[in-house]
Design brief:
This protein is α+β, with helices and mostly antiparallel strands and about 160 residues long. It has a domain at about 85-160: SH3 type barrels (Roll), CATH 2.30.30. The chain contains two helices and seven strands; from the N terminus they run H-H-E-E-E-E-E-E-E. It has a four-stranded antiparallel sheet, with no helix packed on it. Strands 1-2-3 form a three-stranded antiparallel sheet, with no helix packed on it. A hairpin with a 4-residue loop joins strand 1 (about 95-100) and strand 2 (about 105-110). The termini are far apart.
């Protein structure tokens, strides 16, 4: 019962408190709260904010996406379309099947992936190298790799008739 007796007084005080700011705003010549429109906030440009912490890496950037995908100078240069015959075959594709000796020359017999026999002498070229030396039961070939940096890397490959 005590609450019911004070209820009209409490309601009157609330109305007075609500009316006071409105009266103050009208007397000052400002706009009422119903006419105020909220301002749109400017968009924050997060892309321009960079993590600067001396020599430590940014923990928010994915390192796999930052890798350079450009050409590296140590890649092999494309050789283009291989010509037909033994001059268009790689050293790894051919197998040594025989060696022939004559008075002053020696000939190596290779079998290509087309199952044909090819007779090569010292200095004859394959697609990725040349025949350097012909021995009694082996041949020595030089494989050349041209890199994009302009460097030519050579590797000596030995093929034997009989494996020990």
């Amino acid at each position: 019962m005590n609450i019911c007796r004070h209820l009209p007084t409490l309601a009157a005080q609330c109305l007075v408190l609500l009316a006071v700011p409105r009266l103050q705003a009208e007397s000052a010549g400002t706009v009422t709260t119903t006419e105020i429109k909220p301002k749109a906030e400017a968009a924050v440009l997060y892309s321009s904010v960079r993590y600067q912490s001396e020599n430590r890496r940014d923990p928010f950037l994915n390192p796999t996406l930052l890798e350079k995908k450009g050409d590296t100078p140590d890649e092999e240069v494309s050789r283009g379309q291989p010509p037909p015959g033994i001059s268009g075959m790689f050293i790894a594709q051919v197998g040594l099947i025989g060696v022939s000796f004559r008075d002053d020359s020696s000939t190596a017999v290779f079998q290509g992936p087309d199952h044909r026999a090819y007779f090569l002498q010292k200095g004859d070229r394959l697609f990725d190298g040349y025949l350097k030396e012909v021995g009694s039961d082996f041949v020595s070939l030089v494989r050349e790799t041209r890199l994009k940096s302009g460097k030519v890397v050579t590797q000596e490959v030995t093929k034997r008739l009989r494996t020990p």
